[in-house]
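So, can you check this record?

>
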Amino acid sequence: MKKYTLFLMLPAMAAAVFVTGCTTANAAKEQKNATAPEFLQDLDRAKMREQAMAQGAAMLTAVQNKDYAGFTQYFPEEVKKKFTVQAFNQFDTYIGKLEKWEYLTDMVTPVTTTYLWKTTVRRKDSKGKEITLNMLFQLALAKKDGQYKVVGSWFR
């Protein structure tokens, strides 16, 4: 039973390493002159989706190529400082080797849109056996100061 619980906890622990949304939200609250996200119009959503497709593909390609700078290039500076190269390098251990992905859909709120990709990863289980599993990659964007900015990204 303990091995099964550990197996279920590993993706959750790994996802916690890759969560940037909460850190971004907290850092934004701490900034004295931070502006709130703007409400999105239909034209914003179309432009934001185009940007998200490009950024999401670039970030997933960077994970696949073990390119820390490429993965974090769209992160706000305060998140880049907290998300270390060492954490990024643990991706293969805790999540797995990213093999492929496909875009699924987006989740809309009045001020953010979260874009979802289904990913396929391969890693070794606790017994050393290679396993394949699917995870979601989520990329959330909001409009701030007239620009579409990443406000969170994570694997689940």
Remarks:
- The longest helix spans residues 42-64.
- The longest strand covers residues 130-144.
